[in-house]
Amino acid sequence: MPRTSLVYRALLRTASVLVPLGGLANQKLARTVALRRGVGERLAAWGRVSRDSARPLAWFHAPSVGEGRQAQAVLQEFRARHPDWQVAYTYFSPSAESFAAGIGADIADCLPIDTADGVEAALDALHPSLLVFAKLDVWPELATRAAGTGVPVALVAATVRPGSGRLRPVARTLLAPGYRALAIAGAISADDAERLARLGVAADRIRVTGDPRSDSVLARVAGVYADDPLLALGQRAPAMVAGSTWPIDEDLLLAAFMAVRERHPAARLILVPHEPSPEAVERVERAAERIGAPPARRLGTGATDAPVLVVDRLGVLATLYGAGKLAYVGGGFGTAGLHSVLEPAAWGLPVTFGPHWTESRDAGRLIAAGGGVAVASPQALATVWTDWLADDAARVRTGAQARAVVESERGASARSAALLDEVI
Fold this sequence. Notes:
The chain is an alpha/beta fold. It is built from 18 helices and 14 strands. The strands form 2 sheets. Strands 3-2-1-4-5-6-7 form a 7-stranded parallel sheet, with helices on both faces. A 7-stranded parallel sheet has the order 10-11-9-8-12-13-14, with helices on both faces. α7 (140-148) runs parallel beside α8 (169-180).
């Protein structure tokens, strides 16, 4: 059975000392440290009180919310197949805390640091019969120690970007024991499967199952009530819903919006910053004022008829896309990385995004299917935006092609759950 290297273990021990010090100067890091404080005791307490030794337990792990939605789709399918099992769910990022609380697990908490002591304590507390990682977040100490005790270790929704840092020689060497410990892995595409093998997963243990996130977003769209007030935001005027935007996206969108309004004065822009903090919302308001755009009004003020509406709360983007005639997804400029294009596509919207999309498999699929367009300037965005508003049939057709991309992987969560059945 593979084991982690002395170098990896030393690095994790060092990180467990240095990261709390870094939290003194970084608020997000401080939150990460605070979440993990006492996690071993919390898991142990649950194990003593609630762990039913007569029932097997599946432990699912995903780092953040995006990967969590992939894991959730598989978790729900797994629970439907195995209602007698208990389920534990862990996450890494503080941003996933509230999401994890509603995922439907018997226990949800953050993942302990991947040191020998932390891992052993968690395994003793949960006593899992199956360990499932989502996307690529395989922690070597946890994976190898679980496998060493006879627990099958699996990976679902596996995605390895062509430029992933994990493929670099040093990272690959340090992380390889965790990937070699996998009993089974479900990759979302053949290309991902090939890169997964390069990370150390045995080729005969890899299957191509598709992306369970497609099931997740389709279910979320189907679950929105037709009378949801957020959907009404798009009833009075054709709206572009721009989600997960960064400042560079917002400047481009506002400039394009000014050009679009010359031909379509009723057009609306609904902006949803990636992190809708007061500072982010104020920045959008100042940017609109600076270029002479209509004043940006906040959703929280009830100004639902404003030509430029900026969303100042979390958790509404997936529904808000349903209010749009077309969509823009942020992160395709700069270095942030393109955010998920599947949610607007699942609503049947034509999708636009910035030029740095090549690391996103989904964006490439949208472009190839004629359901998405990459733009590199305000002028290019304004042209696409204007054309779609002028030609409703073309807009609807493009949106249908985007939806078809999502539909093409429907059932990936069931295929992933069936994969887990192979090893339990």
